[in-house]
Q: What sequence folds into this?
């Protein structure tokens, strides 16, 4: 891709605080650019209000007492991207053949605006041309009918899809006869879900916002909330005012973890609130060693009664821990024994502990085991299922958790399929489907021929970009249900469709939709803005019309009724998914889903108890001269959507092709800040290169470096995945830095 918008990055020293007035100013600047002044104010005042729409940004919960401006800088940017007044219509596609779009950067593509009409790229053509909705559905139905088996199609979901759309979509896919429902979660919190289901019996967190406010000690591990969950800083601030201590565990000194200036409270400006009381600058992937060491130091403080009454496997775990090799612990964490002992003292003094985490824990080879070790650590002192304590995986997309609850999952439980089949009177497929990585392999090998994407940007969010792009190009048909232009429209199958839909901010005639936040609260979301174009359909309507085209008069599912009224879908959800009884009556006010560990200290696992697990500690082998690379988000992006080219808190302006490296690691390589390097990853099947990165000397942990996703996805091998969860290892890629000549094109 050309780096037409990627100027030479300018670098200043990183910030040690987040929020404050610059955050408000920056958000307003982007909102004005996309929407103009009046629309900005009108739109932003509806975010996260009882009669407004759920913020399409992150999944952080709203809390009971909403402020009149219940959004954050990056939520405002997410809204502005969707409510933009810029448009991508047929003229645009006439002027830009697919081959041209494929050379553009993610930033350029996203900045073009909202998609307005269904578009079709016929086989052999290099242009998208307008097509009617009817014709578009005929084409999809024709290609699905032509398959040898329904398993030759995959149906991806990104995490913005509402509960109603997700339920209708998975029902459509299972009526068709496959469980090929990969989703963004496969690349995100799948490791959390795997570890928590096995150990606690629920694949979600066990804390409410209130628990966080009441906690005495909060660990924030592998997470950058100042950028990715800014409203979480308000909760951390409140916990601190109640006397909580906060421990940040991160290879990077992220600004939002250190100090917060609450932009919504005048008293929160000034110097702001210091957040982390302790910053453990851990090496990448050192977390399993950290939690094992802490547990070992705390064994004498076990909550014996809880362990006996509620858990399984304690003795085996304890025995294994006693053999812990301290040399390995120090090597893996890069921390000192004193730091570990002091941290253990903090825990010893705390009556209740919450551990929060995000992608820093989930995207490594041993992620599932690491998260199981976090659970061990909490179980030891009875820190699950009581006020102010528990696990808090902080989810990403605003409804990614709800999508799973609605059955978007390639490995559905028998109980879910029984309920679904019973309700609609058909036999759903039982064989497990393909997840994201397996779907790429299947397209690469030619066994999947149709790709259907409900939102997201599959080509760009996935690893091993060259392999994945070739895989998508090999398919017969790709269908993207989207709001905005992205690279997945340009890197497409032999035939391709773009189906433009309403965003969450826009009015939908069929009524409100619902979402579930990171803490299991379900509530309504009402779009209020006039749709970006009269030709848009809702995601629900796309599914229902396609279903009617494919199944005709379906005796099992009233698709036409579903399309007219989202309430009719909720009536069915209420009968299929536990916890949704009286859904239509309760949705407007919102309600909490049942959570057995939190509500009753009950653990619906295979043993009927909370499980301690034994996890072998292995220190990642980084060969001499190599670095461990993590791929992260800048402050100006939402996953593959690039809002701007700055990363304010880390001091970067006007450029994304940068790599953050410790000054001593640079010196060892005779490199200096400002040098140009290629990043080369090494894997048994060969090397991969991301060319032309400017080096930034940065206070990250030794031996580790960081660069932005998605530019670095090309470096993550498809086969480098987490055990059990199959999540790409986007946070631990072994690379070397190769000096590049300044004149080499900064392509890639
Ligand atoms: N504005 C904005 N908001 C977002 C998103 C966005 O792109 N933009 N994305 C949304 C989505 S889908 C998600 S999943 C979340 C992502 O939220 P985050 O997980 O906060 O996102 P990342 O940028 O991947 O940051 C990972 C953090 O973990 C640290 N880390 C990396 N590896 C390790 C490790 O081995 N150990 C430890 N202890 N720390 C490590 C990194 O230094 C970094 O601080 O945010 C959601 N919210
Ligand atoms: N290297 C590396 N790779 C990663 C990660 C990483 O940390 N490092 N993180 C991973 C994670 S955590 C995630 S969640 C995935 C994200 O993967 P995805 O969810 O697939 O990617 P997004 O960038 O969030 O998708 C953006 C697109 O969604 C569409 N869209 C936005 N809103 C709507 C809507 O309301 N409806 C519809 N139909 N479409 C909409 C727009 O067209 C937009 O271009 O990426 C993963 N990939
Ligand atoms: Mo995510």
A:
């Amino acid at each position: 891709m050309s780096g037409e918008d990627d100027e030479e990055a300018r670098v200043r020293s990183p910030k040690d605080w987040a929020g404050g007035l610059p955050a408000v100013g920056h958000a307003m600047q982007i909102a004005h650019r996309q929407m103009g002044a009046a629309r900005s104010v009108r739109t932003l005042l509806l975010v996260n209000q009882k009669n407004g729409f759920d913020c399409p940004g992150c999944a952080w919960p709203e809390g009971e007492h909403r402020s009149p401006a219940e959004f954050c800088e990056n939520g405002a940017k997410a809204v502005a991207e969707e409510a933009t007044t810029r448009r991508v219509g047929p003229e645009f596609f006439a002027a830009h053949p697919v081959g041209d779009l494929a050379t553009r950067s993610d930033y350029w593509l996203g900045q073009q605006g909202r998609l307005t009409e269904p578009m079709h790229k016929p086989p052999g053509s290099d242009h998208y041309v307008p097509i009617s909705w009817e014709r578009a559905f005929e084409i999809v139905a024709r290609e699905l009918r032509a398959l040898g088996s329904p398993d030759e199609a995959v149906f991806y979901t990104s995490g913005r899809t509402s509960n109603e759309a997700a339920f209708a979509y998975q029902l459509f896919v299972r009526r068709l006869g496959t469980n090929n429902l990969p989703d963004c979660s496969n690349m995100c919190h799948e490791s959390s879900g795997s570890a928590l289901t096995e150990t606690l019996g629920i694949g979600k967190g066990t804390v409410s916002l209130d628990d966080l406010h009441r906690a005495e000690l909060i660990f924030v591990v592998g997470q950058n909330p100042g950028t990715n969950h800014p409203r979480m800083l308000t909760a951390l601030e409140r916990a601190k005012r109640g006397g909580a201590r906060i421990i940040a565990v991160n290879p990077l000194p992220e600004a939002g973890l250190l100090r917060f200036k609450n932009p919504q409270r005048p008293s929160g400006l000034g110097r702001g609130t210091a957040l982390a009381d302790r910053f453990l600058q851990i090496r990448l992937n050192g977390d399993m060693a950290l939690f094992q060491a802490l547990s070992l130091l705390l064994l004498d403080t076990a909550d014996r009664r809880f362990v006996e009454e509620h858990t399984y496997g304690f003795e085996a775990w304890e025995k294994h821990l006693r053999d812990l090799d301290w040399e390995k612990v120090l090597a893996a964490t890069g921390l000192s024994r004193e730091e570990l002992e002091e941290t253990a003292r903090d825990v010893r003094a705390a009556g209740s502990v919450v551990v929060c985490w995000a992608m820093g824990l989930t995207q490594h080879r041993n992620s599932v085991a690491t998260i199981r070790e976090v659970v061990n650590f909490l179980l030891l002192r009875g820190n699950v299922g009581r006020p102010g304590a528990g696990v808090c995986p902080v989810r990403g997309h605003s409804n990614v958790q709800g999508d799973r609850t609605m059955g978007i999952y390639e490995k559905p439980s028998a109980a879910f399929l029984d309920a679904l089949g019973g309700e609609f009177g058909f036999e759903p497929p039982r064989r497990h489907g393909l997840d994201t990585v397996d779907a790429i392999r299947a397209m690469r090998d030619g066994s999947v021929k149709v790709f259907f994407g409900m939102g997201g940007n599959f080509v760009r969010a996935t690893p091993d970009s060259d392999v994945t792009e070739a895989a998508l190009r090999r398919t017969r048909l790709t269908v993207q249900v989207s709001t905005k232009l992205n690279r997945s429209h340009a890197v497409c199958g032999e035939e391709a469709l773009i189906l433009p839909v309403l965003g969450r901010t826009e009015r939908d005639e069929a009524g409100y939709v619902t979402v579930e936040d990171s803490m299991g609260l379900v509530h309504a979301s009402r779009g209020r803005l006039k749709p970006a174009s009269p030709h848009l359909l809702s995601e629900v309507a796309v599914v229902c019309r396609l279903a009617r085209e494919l199944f005709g008069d379906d005796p099992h599912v009233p698709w036409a009724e579903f399309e007219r009224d989202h309430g009719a879908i909720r009536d069915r959800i209420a009968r299929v998914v536990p916890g949704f009884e009286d859904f239509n009556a309760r949705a407007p006010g919102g309600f909490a889903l049942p959570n057995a560990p939190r509500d009753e200290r009950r653990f619906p696992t295979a043993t009927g108890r909370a499980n301690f697990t034994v996890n072998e500690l292995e220190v990642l082998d980084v060969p001499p001269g190599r670095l461990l690379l993590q791929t992260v988000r800048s402050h100006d992006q939402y996953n593959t959507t690039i809002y701007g080219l700055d990363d304010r808190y880390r001091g970067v302006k006007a450029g994304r092709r940068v790599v953050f490296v410790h000054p001593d690691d640079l010196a060892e390589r005779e490199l200096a800040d400002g040098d140009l390097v290629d990043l080369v990853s090494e894997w048994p099947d060969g090397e991969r290169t991301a060319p032309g990165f400017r080096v930034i000397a940065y206070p990250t942990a030794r031996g580790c470096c960081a660069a932005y996703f998605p530019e670095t996805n090309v470096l993550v091998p498809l086969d480098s995945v987490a055990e059990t969860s199959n999540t790409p290892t986007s946070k631990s890629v072994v690379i070397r830095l190769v000096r590049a000549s300044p004149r080499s094109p900064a392509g890639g």
About this structure: The chain has four domains: 19-82, 87-188+399-581, 190-394+606-611, 627-739. The two ends are 5 Å apart (CA to CA). The chain has 32 helices and 31 strands.
